Amino acid sequence: MTPMLEAKGLVRRYAMRRGLMGRSVEVRAVDGVSLSVERGRTLGLVGESGCGKSTTGRLVLGLEAPDAGSVAFQDKPMPPAGTPAWRALRSRMQMVFQDPLGALDRRLPIGAQVQEPLDIHAIGEAKDRPARAIEALRAVGLRPDQAARYPHELSGGQRQRAVLARALATEPALLVCDEPISALDVSIQAQVMNLLMEQQERLGLGILFISHDLRAVRQVSHRVAVMYLGTIVEEGEPDAVLHDPAHPYAQALVSAIPHPGRTGNRIVLQGDPPNPADRPTGCAFHPRCPVATAFCAREAPVLKPRNSDGRLVACHVAQGDVAPAVTQRAA
Ligand code: SF4
Hints:
By secondary structure, the protein is an alpha/beta fold. The protein contains eleven helices and twelve strands. The structure holds iron/sulfur cluster. Iron/sulfur cluster (SF4) binds at residues 247-248, 283, 285-286, 289, 291-292, 296, 301, 315-317. Residues 5-254 form the ABC transporter domain.
């Protein structure tokens, strides 16, 4: 299947000043990320806070320009942000953020906010747009009378539904969801994820689902990519990655998922996540990796197929190039 979104070798660097009078250092927030999203499929992007997931989401939508690499949407290069060609594409690519209250305008009724992208992109006849906005609200399970409500008059779950209605009103081809459920109660999280999957089926949406929650990612995704310090370290089918993670970082993430009856197999990583401005040499995970070897500190592994199951892994040990060091796994 041809991907509707294809990103190759994305790099995004920021300058950061150390201390008040300190010199400026370079932070590589995203460091050579390649990914693709197909029509009607979801790619889950998972990793700790600060690993570069959100920056990757903004890069693939063209909201930020990469320092290197390329993004193609529906077989055409992504136009530079702010240009008429990019604005014309925005109705086909939408983003859903973590905080629904922050994403909505508190001074405008929900219906007007759902209609806004239809007005901006001049979609349909002006006289039909209020009805289309109501339809979009209905599609996400909100009642027509709720169109007149203001964001603070809705619950958190209803607000996130309104955000989804706004994103889906233009019938986009691609949806980038950045932690769309992490601000919601657990009971509402399942409803919003089900809604996303229903709308995906209805519209054939390609979704990039960004989350720190591996369980949520597994539920909605057709493929999962695990990120660590700006790079993808493992990518594969959700069941394969969750049942048999190959990369030591993915193994630690999976082992931290609470599981009834699981005892004694949690992998406790040593140390804190490294400062992106002080990136370790070789494999960026080596200072925390339980099986790191001296070779790992010298040579950065490349993301490549591990075997015939379609799994991509960036790890010398998982690829069988070096033997693991003695493990220090804690129970
Ligand atoms: Fe650990 Fe080495 Fe693999 Fe990096 S390359 S994850 S340090 S074993």
